[in-house]
Structures are given as C-alpha cells and as structure tokens.
Write a structure and sequence with these properties.
By secondary structure, the chain is mostly helical. 78% of the residues lie in helices and 0% in strands. The longest helix has 24 residues. The chain is globular.
C-alpha cells in the first residue's frame, strides 16, 4: 500500500494500465497483490485499523475509476457501491483479514 494510509490511493493511481490489468486479471492475482501490500503495511507498523483505512481508500478509488474484470470483482464492486460508510469499513476490515489469512496459508504450505 503505502507508508501512510492516505497515500494508498495515490499509489494505485500511479500504476500504469498494464500493471493494473495484470493485477486485476483474476481474483487470486488481486488477492495476492493485496496480500503483499498488507504485508508491507504490517512491516512498517500499520495495525489493522491503518490497513483497513488504506484498503478502504484503494477500494474507493477502484470503484470510481476501474471496471471490474471478473465475477468476484463485480460482486465486490456492487457491495461497495451499495454499502454505507460503516459497512464499507467492515468490508475493508474483512478484506484485510481475508488476504492476511491467504498470506498465512501460503506461508504454511
């Protein structure tokens, strides 16, 4: 993500289209990318709240500027578009936990 959760959206904006396409080509690639970013955030001391805040900023950016590229992203986009603020907070926290669990599963394998 970025060292400061506020920089997360700027980081995503700076990715070139080819990199975005590669990351979002399928949901597992997206989860792995997000998991890597969560690891980076944890390594610089961001806690769950900071990680969720950065995830929320990225999700807001993606919902406004990127078309979903697969079924899972379409579902997430629909949920995000229809969620209230507190629901978005919960979705962001759940995404962080989901990719964190994916990271742990990969480490154990």
């Amino acid at each position: 993500m970025a060292e400061d959760p506020k920089k997360a959206e700027q980081y995503v904006e700076k990715l070139d289209q080819e990199d975005k396409d590669q990351i979002m080509q399928n949901f597992n690639t997206f989860k792995n990318y997000l998991g890597d970013q969560v690891k980076k955030g944890e390594s610089i001391g961001l806690g769950e709240k900071g990680l969720a805040k950065a995830t929320k900023r990225v999700a807001d950016h993606l919902a406004k500027h990127e078309e979903p590229r697969n079924r899972e992203e379409k579902v997430l986009n629909e949920l995000w578009q229809n969620a209230e603020k507190d629901e978005k907070d919960a979705i962001a926290k759940a995404l962080v936990r989901m990719v964190d669990q994916t990271n742990k599963d990969e480490t154990e394998a």
